Amino acid sequence: MSMLIWLAPLAGVISIVFAGILAANVLKRDQGDDKMKEIAAAVQDGAMAYLNKQYTVIAIVGVILAVIIAVVPGLGWKLAVGFIVGALLSAGAGYLGMNVAVRANVRTAAAAKKSLKDALDVAFKGGSVTGLSVVGMSMLGVSLMYIIFGDVHQVIGFGFGASLISLFARIGGGIYTKAADVGADIVGKVVNNLVEDDVRNPATIADNVGDNVGDCAGMGADLFETYAVTLLASMLIGAAVWLKNQKDNFIPTYSHRTFSETTADMPMDTNYVLFPLMLGAVAIIASIIAVFCVRLGKDKKIMKAMYIGVAVAAVICAIAFAGITFAIFHDLKFYWVTLVGIVITVLMVVVTEYYTGSNYRPVQEIAKASQTGAGTNVISGLSFGFESTIIPVIIIICGIIAAFKLGGGTFDNPMIGLYAIAIAAVAMLSTTGMIVALDSYGPITDNAGGIAEMSGQDPAVREVTDELDAVGNTTKAVTKGYAIGSAALGALALFSDFQSSANLEDSLKLAISNPAVLVGLLIGGLLPFAFTSVTMRAVSKAAQSVIVEVERQVKELGILEGKNRPEYGKCVSIVTSAALKEMIVPGLMAVLVPIFVGVIFGNVALAGTLIGIIVVGLMLAMMLNNAGGAWDNAKKVIETDGLYGGKHSEAHKAAVVGDTVGDPTKDTSGPGLNALIKVVNMISILFLPLFMLVNSGSGLLGL
């Protein structure tokens, strides 16, 4: 059994190798003419320059936190090392994926000259580099840290490192991409009646750069963290289950060991800890196989081709998980739990596509509402955004209950049921490699369309890239919905570990009568709103600066008449500075609030904070994501289908306004809440030893 654990890092290495093979395949493709290369180079330079500056800022914060972790009593150098490794691998996955994405865009545009099939092949394989890099590096890091340290609690530092990168990458990338997008749309489409990616619009390069730093590097870091943290959470609860079994039964299964209250004495091959790693290893192989199953059929339905790939990964996992479960536990109890996780994934994808897809009622009604102005468009989008939380929450509730019961959980002995919920979350993430590939496909095709437009390609080329991009809008929305659902289950697993580690089970059973819990609930419920406020305002301020700069160039340089070449670099510089500056406050908010609550109010209040942020953050994130996706596609259907007057009509201008409102909700604040929820949980677990030193965990106020 002990040799099985090496399958996890091996699967990680295989995934990274295949990512390299796909990258080499993409990079050898034709790049098109010199004009296409010139535009693509500007996007590459802007994207890599921003990412380098962003990582420099994060590195400063990271070094400070690593030193604090190393010196705080109860933490130590192992957690600090894990923190550094987690941050480096998360950054590396995003860096590698975006590096390929900003090179796949021009190759996709060049392939669009040949056929839709060739363009899809380049774009999806480019996106798959990010997907396989994310799951490969995440699995490699978690498993090796566990093998090296031999104590699952020492791997928490790795999860926090991944969380930190995810938080700042999501916030910074989101502010960058949406400030550029909103600025480009308002001053281009609304004010000057320009088409998407018009070469005369100075904000277009910044907009195309933003697609990559937000949806590629940002989402890659987000799901890297979700994958790593969910694996870690299930391993932590698995360790707690093993310790409880040892304490209840005290059967010397491992006669050469003595039982203690720490996982440092736990055997490396403990089934409950090994199981999630084996599920992840099998899922990685399934994703690699599925990548090569995405092929355009005779019906030329792009979304169908991609969903076939996701379905192949899910089916392979559903079959293989049975063998893994029986081999480790000698029964199939937890196999049914893994199926619950896979079913949740399918249902979340279906619901998200319904609320954000162009062919369904929400988007169609928002587009229709645009006929009477921007006000009715926005009201309609908000309405469907709020409605879109209902079914996903019901799905998650049913999934939690089903996993808890199938896992054998009871009110008197909930730990095994909580472990089952964590396993369902791991199974839900079994298709992560494919899901990240779908997301990274989006900015590649979006950029390809921009390059085709700005380089003056034949309209037929733009038609192909528009067809790819229309699907990309939906895949990005579906990916975010998937990330939100998986984040919710992962955060519940993290909360369960915090509750167990802090010995709060009895305290929380009487939570409604405990003022500390009520205080924590209010703080936890408030934090997502405060976070959303700060990030939305950051996008607005940066977008205003972009609009002012573009209007200056229109007046002073005569760029619309072709008198001078637009100064693209000015807009890139504006959004770069704004993103790096504005990401600090919401980032610190996520780091400092749980520490403040734990030190001042104590562990019981902090537990309430975690519950509050999970519940409120989950629903707010879903609402923001789905409303934004619906607004985006409502604009697209008016543009591409010619509804209600088509481009440049009053309905189109109203839809553009709705889209600009939705841009920061779906690409900045909504996804940022995913990272916020998990960062707060990770910090609470990581700094628990510190909180225990303050009045025995009751905080300075002794609540």
Q: How many domains make up the 3D coordinates?
A: 1
Rounded mean pLDDT score: 85
* Strand fraction: under 5%
Helix content: over 70%
- Overall radius of gyration: 24 Å
| pLDDT < 50 runs, ≥5 residues | 250-262
- Overall shape: it is globular
**Pattern of helices and strands:** HHHHHHHHHHHHHHHHHHHHHH
The number of distinct helices, counting runs of at least 4 residues, comes to 22
Give the termini separation.
Answer: 46 Å
| Strand-pairing-aware structural class | mainly alpha
* Sheet having the most strands: none
Number of strands: 0
Descriptive account of the structure:
The structure is a single chain. The two termini are 46 Å apart. The protein has helices at residues 7-27, 34-71, 77-111, 116-149, 156-191, 204-249, 271-291, 302-329, 333-356, 361-369, 374-387, 390-406, 415-428, 432-454, 459-501, 505-509, 515-557, 568-582, 584-600, 603-641, 650-686, 688-693. 80% of the residues lie in helices and 0% in strands. The chain has one domain. The chain has 22 helices and no strands. The chain is mainly alpha-helical and 703 residues long.
